[in-house]
Design goal:
Number of domains of chain E: 2
Strand order of the largest sheet of chain D: 6-7-8-3-9-10
CATH architecture of the largest domain in chain E: 3-Layer(aba) Sandwich
Largest interface: A-E, 52 and 53 residues
CATH architecture of the largest domain in chain D: 3-Layer(aba) Sandwich
InterPro entries (chain A): ABC_transp_permease, LivM-like
Structural class of chain E: alpha/beta
Shape of chain E: globular
Largest sheet of chain D: 6 strands, mixed
Strand order of the largest sheet of chain E: 7-6-8-9-10-11-12
Helix content of chain D: 25-40%
Strand content of chain E: 15-25%
Order of helices and strands of chain D: EEEHEEHEHHHHEHEHEEHH
Order of helices and strands of chain E: HHEHEHEHEEHEHEHEHEEHHHEE
Strand content of chain D: 25-35%
CATH superfamily of the largest domain in chain D: P-loop containing nucleotide triphosphate hydrolases
Oligomer: heteropentamer
Subcellular location (chain A): Cell membrane
Low-confidence stretches of chain E: 21-52
CATH topology of the largest domain in chain D: Rossmann fold
Shape of chain D: globular
GO molecular function, one term (chain A): branched-chain amino acid transmembrane transporter activity
Distance between the termini of chain D: 33 Å
Radius of gyration of chain D: 17 Å
Keywords (chain A): Cell membrane, Membrane, Transmembrane, Transmembrane helix
CATH class of the largest domain in chain E: Alpha Beta
Pfam family, one (chain A): BPD_transp_2
Number of strands of chain D: 10
Mean pLDDT of chain D: 87
CATH superfamily of the largest domain in chain E: Response regulator
């Protein structure tokens, strides 16, 4: 029989694993220290700095496009904050959320366009839109009393789909009391020439005005959300999202709160929809289909469900990144920078970095020689091989004559290689890394650059997969840890 | 069958009373014409083999299930078929056999969440931070500390802002009790409060249950397998088997009752204890 | 009555395709309680694999091998290719997330969909492809009862779907692998403690489900559905609806759901208005869910308190 | 101690969950024919030790040996083939499957299962034979316990690992469980039982280990441990 | 070839020297650079002597990804071909900018701001859909940016709201009556079913055809179908035995073929008449009709070469591509003229766009715009598909 001497607490007192968990919560390293320093700032500063930057954008020589992206981002943020109440807090997987956005947009268009000859004052129209959308949200929330989890998600998803079908096909609705079929929604053509917002004599007729309006709305929504977060309602919502049954036993009227979440979320979405309709001066059914739902969900989950900064960041990523990728001149740089930084961050060793990059450079020339030796015809100059180094660069990444075919092969090879590499040990990965890096650049230059629009979508898809795999809880999300 | 305990005779309105409660699931009768009464500030323990209907008994009281027959009275008023959150508001709070905390909420938030029924701030109050909202916030803060003070320093200090999942198992059980207290209930239903605790912790929770009655006058119903706890806290013990009350009375009476030994305790238990 | 029969046949044939897709959803959901939203993309890939196999074998008109053999090879390639792809998707997009929140794999699945659609666009080009079945199968042959006609491809789809379902049902209920799948579905940790290799079981599940999607792709190609990069989105939605309608996790349920959905679509198209077919299908679905939250043949959830 | 090869040996095992150091140099041996109890409070690493032995958790350092063969990198299935089997905490039967199917899953690692093996467990547990076509989820607590043990025995283990067999059971069932375990042990099955109920476990075990904050703090014959003053104070109650 | 081999080897050697930190690396690099300069010089020499003067960017707004990618990619490729051809012929440096709208008016509207903000862009090809045109119209007219669509056929677009909008294809108001007249007259149909696909394209053309048929006294029934419908057997079952013509308004020719095959196999006498969206090799059931705004471009000498080169580079094509070639040409020529006149900004290009006159375009006729931006003398041609599926001009 033996007793470990260093044991001092005596047998039978064991809270140690959990304390370990508590300690592990605190991060280590540079990032954590920067994070802590940032969190140490007063919250007014933490929120104020980004806000100031955002407000200054229009005055720093930006153009309509940037403002328009800003407007889209603002609408997105409103949607994401609204959805966060429903999904992030209450844990209700509402996949019909986009229908509320669409409903708001269509309702505004119906009240302020030639469709029915109505041109209601904006404020009145918006109030009507928000109230009706909220009522619509309440109605769609009713099944949440009976359906939970995936099944609620499915039912709401179909509601969302039905909305689009209904909008597309309601351009010739025959009411029994009318002689002629009536055009309610403009069908596939949607409704155009929707009035712009006009409040107290001020007409929102420029991107700048909408941009500033949205900043105000997003700030208000963020402040409200933050206040709700720690309030009795916020806690009640979060509790029912955690464990609806336990919440009921803790005096929380779950049904009512679920409906409230649905209603409130819908109201916010309706407001965003109305603004969207007036920014665009039109509504079209194709906007409110699955891709938008995907983007909005990606935004809230990417950032970290239930976390306000996470929602804001996620929405920003999902709005700005795809736009950046539209332009080859940016996406090129983005690609190279991500590739290089990613490699450096993966290697975490100043000795390995030059070795890997040297290997990458060597492999290009080796490939060049091999391809020549086996007689693959090619043209040397790639578009980006400019300047004095052009010939060297040109024979490092060469352009094959059969650019599409070889590019496709390279693409498939790259996907397979990256996937395969993720299964290997670090050691083997590092050995293969130069080859894969070169193949990535080769594929990019030979094939992906040729189709920027497709590449953009490919990258967004890959990004979602990679981000989820590396950080399933989202960027700012806290992991759910189960100790033992 | 044992006769009703003297406490319930001396007190005209029991805190909690079940009258001929029957609950069936399909062909299975989980509770069979069960009647019992709990006097205010009494600790009643319910024991019985797995599947005896103990948890169903809690679920019928708290409104998760509506009994097929019979009535449940809380201080003389029927709460049969009332929604769980309303039952809780009327003063019945519970803990769960398998600990159902709001795992990703902090200790403080877990307790504050349970005060929903005692607070009134509307969303408007909250968003615009009206005086009412601020006042409630302060009150909540005090109540949190008050509920936690019951457990010494176990759940205080830095632990207040730790998520519930990071707590040790025993602390989670404690937090669940504190959360139930925070609802403002006067009747606590504790489902195996000592399960998975080591002997020291078991002893501690036994003391706490006693103090809950002595210091705060809670009426408490405990489901427990650990006979040390049952012995330590009970004013009265009820043994259930197949939804039927097979014995009732003091711990000694029940523990030595042949039917209880047959169905639940086993012959060796008395010898070993 | 004949018209009704005609529409019924149309519905059953459409339903066969939906059912095959639904089987994949149901199988994966049954084992992992997770909606593989990228399933429709595997169906799309299957359709393309079938198409390129056909072209490689000499195209619709000048096949190098007998037609039956060609169709057989098309199915093998599409199912094999689908299975491989499905396994890869599981390995890289879902396995890292197996123990995280329910939403993470959903987003990952959407990422996979986006990736696969655009990879197909990049690799196969944007052109819509047609199998041109009429070139190698006489669509005017087959059975006809009065005006109701069932052409050979339609027969193949319906019989094929039924056979695959029966095979799948037997596999799940009668084989060692099937038992392992069900055990993993009930309790992964307990399955591991009994020596079941969860990863391998899940891989097989994905392989089988994705193989079925590949088969569905070829079948819909043979039925002359246009083959393009985005065909999987809506077909996936339909298959998914079918699975939910029948009770997700239940194999006969998926089949039933598929046929019901197909028949609904055909009847609404036939007697009302095609634009409302989806609307009514979704409406039925929501109503069924409200009445039976777990679908027609789904098991009720066991409430744990 | 003789120099026999232990059926199961953990050598200086260190295990982490994320950054949390769970097992800190655990050494443990179970010899053929032995009944070893592994005791300890909550969250002290008992279950992790078991999981490490089965292969659900891979140690960061140290090794696991079954019958003298290093299995640290092997999957649970391979280890079960080498002759260990687990009765998990809370039994964990496959509720929607029949008792027979549960037994078949118990024999999953074996390519061929002769009928006699089923007969063997049916002889051992006539109740289980009776219920073989019933869904496991519909059985009573005691029956479930039997099926769980029968399921584990289907892989013909040399060593049976049991995780908290008394967890959540009524006193009668706890007693019956231990009788069952004791019975099996007498029939020659070697056992490693993880238990919080030290009293009960030490009354039937040959030898015991006490785990504290991830370390083995006490080990020795069960009878000696039952007399250890500190242990008595902590675990055996008043 | 050998030079390049040497270059690769040289590069490798140079790299090896540098990598190994060799002191003599500098000389070696120099020698490799010297070797490298040879091909560069020869490449420069092969370029034409006279310096290019005119250039600028042209944006292509099309659904390059998403459900309508088959249309958008074909349009993009024709635009690429047009720019390449034009640059080669005129030694100019015009470049294309892709703008993916996914056929969604919302995205088109956002992208329009991007295009307006890029001052290098002097003209826009597209957008493809009519609703997209309404969505981008205000931004482009405010910026004075000319845009030429090759597929937006809603007649309302040229009602004066969009002063900078042009299109090289005739509107539904031309196609509908032409097709209806042919169905009523030449085919002599008594009963027609119009399958209206619920897209802005399908809805517009279906309405125009149905109205014209009614006016011509032909009994007709419109069946609306959703865009994502996969099987058309159930729709075909609705077509009565007495129906002579099924008019389809799909954007994807494969669907028209699907309907035609379905009619054949169910033994109905009705033939399919496809609107211009069906004009593609995929639609080939013998006996069907299809209309197009141009004679088959493979039959036009001026176009045969373009068609051939397109097929070589990008594969087969349908109906939405060739007009883009012309639309791109119109902008390129306008830009070139503006450049020659020394006013190569947006206003200059827009002014010149109004004077567009492409003689003998690949669409068969001359292309010029009227005051509203519609193409002059718009006319529709009707083809009958022969047994091999090849279109034969019948009107």
């Amino acid at each position: 029989m033996s007793t470990t001497p260093e044991d001092s607490r005596g047998i039978g007192t064991d809270e140690w694993v959990a304390q370990h968990g508590e300690r592990a919560q605190r991060g280590t390293g540079l990032y954590a220290r920067i994070g802590e320093a940032w969190m140490g700032l007063p919250s007014l500063v933490r929120w104020g700095i980004p806000l100031l930057l955002v407000v200054l954008v229009p005055f720093a020589g930006s153009n309509d496009y940037i403002l328009r992206i800003g407007i889209n981002l603002g609408l997105f943020l409103l949607l994401a904050l609204g959805l966060n109440l429903v999904v992030g807090y209450s844990g209700l997987l509402d996949l019909g959320f986009i229908a509320f956005y669409g409903f708001g947009a269509y309702a505004y268009a119906a009240l302020a366009s030639e469709q029915f000859g109505l041109h209601l004052p904006s404020l009145l129209a918006i109030v009507i839109v928000v109230v009706t959308t909220a009522a619509f949200g309440f109605t769609l929330g009713l099944p949440s009393r009976r359906l939970t989890g995936d099944y609620l998600a499915i039912a709401t998803l179909f509601f969302g789909q039905m909305f689009v079908v209904l909008m597309v096909s309601s351009d010739a609705v025959q009411f029994p009391w009318m002689d002629e079929p009536m055009d309610l929604t403009g069908g596939a053509n949607g409704i155009s020439n929707v009035d712009q917002l006009s409040v107290l004599g001020f007409t929102f007729d420029s991107n700048l005005s909408y941009y500033l309006l949205l900043i105000v709305l997003v700030v208000l929504a963020t402040v409200a959300t933050k206040r709700i977060h720690f309030s009795r309602h916020g806690l009640a919502w979060r509790s029912l999202g955690e464990d609806s049954l336990a919440a009921q036993h803790m005096t929380i009227p779950t049904v009512r709160l679920k409906l409230l979440a649905f209603t409130l979320g819908a109201g916010i979405a309706g407001l965003a929809g109305a603004i969207f309709a007036s920014v665009q001066q039109g509504v079209y059914p194709s906007t409110f289909e699955l891709p938008l739902l995907i983007t909005i969900y990606a935004a809230i989950i990417l950032g970290g469900l239930g976390s306000i900064p996470g929602v804001l960041l996620g929405a920003a990523i999902m709005t700005i990144l795809p736009e950046l990728l539209r332009f080859p001149e940016y996406s090129n740089w983005l690609f190279l920078v991500v590739l290089i930084l990613g490699t450096i961050m993966y290697l975490k060793s100043w000795k390995l970095v030059p070795a890997v990059f040297a290997g990458m450079i060597a492999i290009g020339f080796i490939a060049n020689v091999i391809f020549l030796a086996i007689g693959v015809p090619y043209l040397t100059t790639a578009e980006w091989a400019k300047g004095p180094l052009a010939p060297v660069l040109g024979s490092w990444i060469f352009m094959p004559e059969e650019r599409v075919l070889i590019g496709n092969i390279a693409f498939v090879a790259l996907v397979v290689a990256v996937a395969w590499m993720s299964l290997l040990t670090r050691r083997t990965t590092i050995i293969l890394l130069p080859f894969v890096l070169w193949l990535a650049i080769f594929t990019w230059e030979v094939r992906l650059m040729l189709e920027p629009s497709i590449t953009r979508q490919l990258l967004v898809g890959a990004l979602l997969v990679v981000l989820m795999a590396t950080r399933p809880q989202g960027i700012f999300g806290k992991p759910r840890v189960e100790v033992l | 069958m044992m006769s009703g305990s003297p406490e319930s005779e001396s007190n005209p309105t029991p805190a909690l009373e079940l009258i001929d409660i029957t609950k069936r699931f399909g062909g299975l009768t989980s509770l069979d014409a069960l009647s019992l009464a709990v006097a205010p500030s009494e600790i009643l323990s319910v024991i019985g083999p797995n599947g005896a209907g103990k948890t169903t008994f809690f679920n019928v009281i708290t409104g998760v299930y509506t009994p097929d027959e019979g009535d449940v009275l809380l201080f003389g008023e029927s709460i049969r078929g009332v929604d769980p959150h309303k039952v809780a508001r009327r003063g019945v709070a519970r803990t769960f056999q398998n600990v159902r905390l709001f795992q990703n909420l902090t200790v403080r938030e877990n307790i504050t969440a349970a005060m929903y029924g005692r607070t009134n701030a509307s969303l408007f109050d909250i968003v615009f931070r009206t005086p009412r909202a601020r006042r409630e916030e302060r009150e909540n803060e005090e109540r949190v500390l008050d509920a936690l003070s019951f457990f010494g320093t176990r759940l205080q200090g830095y632990r207040l802002d730790q998520p519930a999942y990071s707590l040790s198992y025993a602390n989670r059980r404690r937090l669940e009790v504190a959360r139930a207290m925070a609802t403002g209930a006067s009747v606590l239903l504790l489902d195996e409060p000592a399960a998975g605790m080591n002997p020291k912790e078991t002893q501690e929770i036994t003391e706490i249950i006693g103090r809950l009655r002595d210091e705060r006058s809670y009426t408490i119903v405990v489901i427990e397998h650990d006979m040390h706890v049952v012995e330590g806290v009970s004013d009265r013990v009820i043994a259930l088997d197949h939804g039927v009350k097979i014995a009732e009375g003091s711990f000694e009476d029940v523990a030595t009752h042949p039917a209880v030994i047959e169905a639940y305790l086993g012959r060796g238990s008395a010898a070993r204890k | 009555m004949e018209y009704f029969g005609e529409q019924l046949v149309n519905g059953v044939v459409m339903g066969g395709v939906y059912a095959l897709i639904a089987l994949g959803y149901t199988l994966i959901y049954g084992v992992l309680q997770f909606l593989n939203l990228a399933h429709g993309e595997l169906y799309m890939m299957g359709a393309f694999f079938g198409f390129f196999t056909m072209t490689a074998l000499g195209g619709p008109s000048a096949s190098a091998v007998p037609v039956a053999v060609m169709i057989g090879i098309m199915f093998i390639v599409a199912m094999g290719g689908g299975a491989l792809l499905g396994v890869a998707v599981e390995r890289f997009a879902y396995r890292p997330l197996r123990n995280s929140s329910r939403l993470a794999p959903l987003i990952s699945a959407l990422g996979v969909s986006l990736f696969l659609q655009n990879a197909a666009l990049l690799l196969f080009g944007a052109r819509v492809r047609l199998y041109d079945t009429g070139q190698f199968i006489d669509l005017r042959s087959g059975i006809s009862i009065g005006r109701i006609r069932i052409d050979p491809t339609e027969m193949m789809v319906v019989i094929g779907a039924l056979l695959l379902m029966a095979g799948l049902w037997l596999m799940v209920n009668r084989t060692r692998l099937g038992r392992a799948m069900r055990a993993v579905a009930v309790d992964q940790d307990a399955a591991v403690m009994n020596g079941i290799d969860v990863d391998r079981t899940v891989v097989w599940t994905f392989a089988i489900a994705s193989g079925l999607a590949g088969a569905a792709g070829v079948m819909s190609g043979l039925l002359l559905y246009p083959v393009d990069q985005y065909m999987g989105v809506f077909a996936g939605l339909k298959g998914f609806s079918a699975a939910v309608l029948g009770g997700i996790g239940s194999i006969p349920g998926a089949m039933l759901g598929g046929f019901l959905l197909g028949i609904t679509e055909a009847l609404v198209t036939g007697y009302l208005n095609p634009t409302y077919a989806d609307f009514i299908a979704f409406l039925i679905l929501i109503l069924v869910l409200l009445i039976r939250p777990r679908g027609i043949l789904g098991r009720p959830a066991i409430a744990k308190v | 101690m003789t120099e026999r090869t232990p059926l199961l040996e953990l050598r200086d095992v260190n295990t982490y969950y994320g950054q949390i150091h769970i097992l800190q140099g655990v050494n443990l041996r179970v010899f053929e024919g032995e009944f070893v109890a592994l005791l300890g409070g909550n969250a002290c690493g008992k279950s992790t030790t078991l999981k490490t032995a089965v292969g659900l958790v891979t140690p960061k350092s140290g090794s696991v040996l079954i019958d003298g063969v290093e299995v640290t990198k092997e999957k649970p299935g391979e280890r079960i083939r080498r002759g260990i089997a687990v009765v998990p905490e809370n039994r964990r039967l496959f509720g929607p499957m029949t008792v027979m199917e549960n037994l078949q899953i118990g024999a999953y690692t074996r390519s061929h299962v002769p009928k006699e093996d089923y007969d063997y467990v049916f002889d051992l547990f006539p109740k289980v034979a009776e219920r073989r076509n019933q869904l496991a989820g519909t059985l009573s607590g005691g029956e479930q316990q039997m099926v769980a043990v029968a399921r584990a025995l289907m892989s013909k283990p040399k060593l049976l690992l049991m995780d908290e067999p008394s967890m959540g059971l009524s006193p009668l069932l706890v007693e019956q469980s231990f009788e069952l375990i004791d019975d099996l042990h007498r029939q020659g099955v070697s056992m490693l039982v993880v238990e919080q109920n030290a009293n009960m476990a030490l009354s039937v075990a040959d030898r015991g280990y006490v785990l504290q904050t991830g370390r083995v703090v006490l080990e020795g014959p069960a009878a000696d441990l039952a007399q250890d003053a500190e242990l008595r104070k902590a675990y055996l109650g008043r | 070839m050998k030079k390049r081999l040497a270059l690769g080897m040289g590069g490798l050697a140079a790299f090896a020297m540098v990598a190994s930190g060799c002191a003599g690396g500098s000389t070696s690099t120099e020698s490799s650079a010297a070797a490298a300069s040879a091909p560069a010089a020869s490449a420069a020499a092969s370029a034409p002597a006279e310096a290019p003067v005119c250039g600028g960017s042209i944006a292509v707004m099309a659904p390059l990804t998403g459900g309508a990618a088959s249309i958008g990619q074909e349009q993009l490729n024709f635009a690429k071909l047009a720019v390449d051809d034009f640059n080669a012929a005129n030694s100019s440096t015009y470049a294309l900018v892709e703008s993916d709208t996914q056929l969604d008016a919302g995205q088109a509207s956002t992208q329009s701001t991007s295009i307006v903000s890029d001052s290098a862009i002097i003209g826009v090809v597209g957008p493809a859909g009519s609703q997209e045109v309404s969505a981008v119209g205000p931004a482009f007219s405010e910026a004075g940016l000319g845009f030429v669509s090759a597929s937006a056929t809603n007649p309302d677009l040229t009602n004066g709201d969009n002063p900078t909008f042009f299109r090289v294809v005739p509107t539904d108001a031309v196609q509908g009556p032409t097709d209806a007249e042919f169905i009523a007259g030449t085919i002599g149909a008594k009963k027609v079913v119009v399958i209206e696909e619920k897209t802005d394209y399908g809805t517009g053309i279906a309405k125009s055809v149905a109205d014209a048929l009614t006016a011509a006294g032909v009994a007709n029934e419109v069946i609306a179908v959703p865009e994502d419908k996969k099987s058309y057997d159930d729709v075909v079952s609705k077509v009565g035995d007495d129906v002579d013509v099924v008019f389809v308004t799909f954007q994807v020719a494969a669907k028209s073929e699907q309907v035609a095959q379905s009619l054949v196999k169910s033994g109905k006498k009705a033939v399919v008449f496809g609107s211009d969206g069906s004009f593609s090799g995929d639609f080939k059931t013998g006996g069907s009709y299809v209309s197009a705004f141009a004679p088959d471009i493979k039959g036009i000498p001026a176009a045969a070469d373009v068609a051939q080169r397109f097929s070589d580079a990008y594969g087969e094509f349908g109906t939405f591509g060739p007009p883009v070639y012309v639309a791109t040409q119109s902008i390129l020529q306008a830009a070139q003229r503006a450049c020659a006149a020394g006013a190569s900004d947006r206003a200059g290009v827009l002014a010149e766009l109004k004077n567009t006159n492409i003689a003998g375009s690949i669409l068969g006729g001359d292309i010029a715009f009227d005051a509203m931006g519609d193409v002059n003398g718009a006319k529709f041609y009707i083809f009958k598909l022969d047994e091999s599926g090849a279109p034969q001009l019948v009107q």
